[in-house]
Design brief:
The protein has 217 residues and is an alpha+beta fold. It is 38% helix and 27% strand.
Length: 217
């Protein structure tokens, strides 16, 4: 049917973590239901969905997830003698849950791909991208100074979407704010919100440095 939204069924892993496209996420799989899920994903070479928990807990009874998550591709897996697994995943693309499915020991969902739209002219997007890139570099510099480390950045991403997600991944902020960034509908929205958050975080880090008010390690 013309205009129909394409959906697919996807295994879901509710976590107290927000995963972004391009981000690497290592996981230790110990619950039997998720060991089953990961074994099936490995056998069929399928991704699964990482979603932030809205209500509930990672372990035990089912948790209610936020509706926007990220496809995770398993890029490395290690099976341990006690039956648990260590895996490394890579965030691929965003999705939105249209319907939750409770037909397996683990949660599944009917999902649709969620792309970032681009509103406004190219010059405005370029200006926003440059502003985010500059603020991310400053944030990393301030964090490194706070930790007494030297962090070198060889090359920043060029694409607006990549720099927006890099900002979201880099900032040490509340998961609800990260989820807000993940759920952004447009490039303008994620870049604009990233600038607001980076301004706040950079101002706080600058103040802490000037007053030596760093938290104890």
């Amino acid at each position: 049917m013309d205009g129909a939204i394409e959906t697919t069924e996807l295994a879901l892993f509710p976590l107290n973590t927000v995963l972004f496209p391009g981000q690497v996420l290592p996981l230790h799989i110990f619950e039997e239901r998720y060991r089953l899920m990961i074994r099936r994903c490995l056998a069929d070479e399928l991704p699964f969905g990482v979603v932030l928990i809205k209500r509930g807990h990672e372990v035990g009874e089912d948790a209610e997830p936020y509706s926007v998550g990220t496809l995770a591709r398993i890029i490395e897996s290690t099976h341990l003698p006690n039956g648990t697994m260590n895996i490394v995943t890579l965030g691929i693309e965003r999705f939105r849950i249209r319907r939750l499915i409770h037909d397996q020991p683990y949660l599944r969902g009917e999902v649709e791909t969620l792309s970032l739209t681009e509103s406004g002219d190219a010059a405005a997007i370029t200006e926003l991208t440059d502003s985010v890139r500059h603020r991310v570099a400053l944030y990393i510099k301030l964090i490194a100074e706070a930790a007494g480390l030297e962090i070198k950045i060889d090359e920043m991403p060029e694409l607006p979407q990549q720099i927006g997600y890099l900002a979201a991944i880099t900032m040490q902020i509340d998961n609800r704010e990260k989820q807000e960034l993940l759920g952004s509908q447009s490039l303008n929205a994620i870049l604009g919100r990233a600038i607001t958050l980076l301004n706040r975080e950079n101002a706080l880090l600058t103040w802490m440095a000037s007053t030596r008010a760093w938290p104890e390690q």
